[in-house]
Amino acid sequence: MIYVDGVPFAPANSSQGTDILMALMEHPVLVSASNAFESMTEKKLSFSDSRNSRWVYLFQREFATVDPKLVDLAGTDEATTCVCVAIRNRKSGMISVAHMDFPEIVDMGLSQMLLSVADQDCDNLLEVHLMGGFDDSLSLKPYPAMKTKTKMEGYSRPLCVKIIETLRKRSEKFQIQILHVLGRNTKWDSEGIAKPIFHGIVVETATGSIFPASFDRTSRCPDEIVRRIRLASCFEDPSWAGKLLDTYDTTTDRFVIAPCAWTIWQKETALSLKNLSDTEILLTRSSSPSAEGPDFVYNERRIADYLIAHPDWKETFPGRKARVFQRAADGAWSTMKDYC
Q1: N or C: which end of the chain has fewer CB atoms below 10 A?
Q2: Does 134 map to a domain?
């Protein structure tokens, strides 16, 4: 059930997800909130900042629920057609953040997020922030994870519609705080090409405040490359079908990277990338090549280098054990080698 400004949201004469989304985007309260969000200065985060703040960073398709007593900031970036989702329990202060990429993971993904955020109080309003996607309807590039795609929809709109439909159908009460998606998160360059205004968010756990954010290469950790590889692996692993990737342990404040196997397709792709130009990598590896950030090609090449150097996934996960990282005194993440 969706609320806006403490009042149940019930658009007249429509039960279609697209119509509900458009009505929400035109709601005066949410228009004002979106405008205020857009006027904020983007927070630029780097590892040096973590010496003063404890944070949790999430990659595409990952989620984490954080306890304000253990974590100061939680966020994600690198979103183009993806949507950043933050859900906060006002009473407990618990916050779940996710980087959602396709409609197929929304139903189960929201259930995963709510498992440790929602409580037994059915009257408790859960704060919801949605940021991401853009007007990519002119992008016609197909992507393997999408089963269907119409010319007019692009990738962003079906994902946003699915999120709103799912929130509306669930029994919990969701108060939409920020809805900065699609056209509201779109800018155009000098050549008339649409791009996202913002690519990421960060949540201050003590207050629940949300800000547009970007993270530099030092702050996307721990275990960056392995976690990026795991994203591609999950598309061919039926055990992850329809799910967000669970990476962070809320109670222990540790990252637990479950073992995953590299696929033949990943290895072949890694070898083929060695012969491609930067432009060719953008066109073959991105669903929105004109909107990607400056690190996209660099990251794709690093993933390929790792897969070529470590073709056997069991070298990365000895004994098929998870890779576990704990927070050190200086804010960095260190490996727990004896964890099993």
Answers
A1: C
A2: yes
Whole-angstrom Cα distance, residue 187 to residue 195? 5
User: Domain with 271 in it: what CATH number?
Assistant: 3.30.1330.200
58 found inside a domain = yes
72-104: pLDDT as tens digits: 999 999 999 999 999 999 999 999 999 999 999
Could you tell me if residue 154 is inside a domain? yes
Residue with tokens 């909107």: 291
What residue spans of the chain are helical by DSSP H?
A: 17-25, 28-38, 106-115, 156-169, 224-234, 264-273, 278-285, 296-309, 313-316
Residue 329 confidence (pLDDT) above 90: no
- E strand spans, the chain: 2-4, 7-8, 43-45, 55-58, 62-66, 73-76, 83-89, 95-100, 125-132, 173-181, 186-188, 194-196, 201-204, 209-215, 245-246, 248-249, 254-257, 323-327, 333-335
- How many domains are there within the chain? 1
Residue 340 lies in a domain: no
Whole-model pTM over 0.90: yes
Q: How far is CA 335 from the centre of its chain?
A: 24
The end-to-end CA distance of the chain, in Å, is 41
Residues 3-61 have pLDDT tens digits of: 999 999 987 766 788 999 999 999 999 999 999 999 999 999 998 766 678 999 999 99
Q: Which residues of 260-297 are buried (b: 16+ CB within 10 A; e: fewer)?
A: bebbeebeebbeebeebeeeebbeebbbbbbbbbeebb
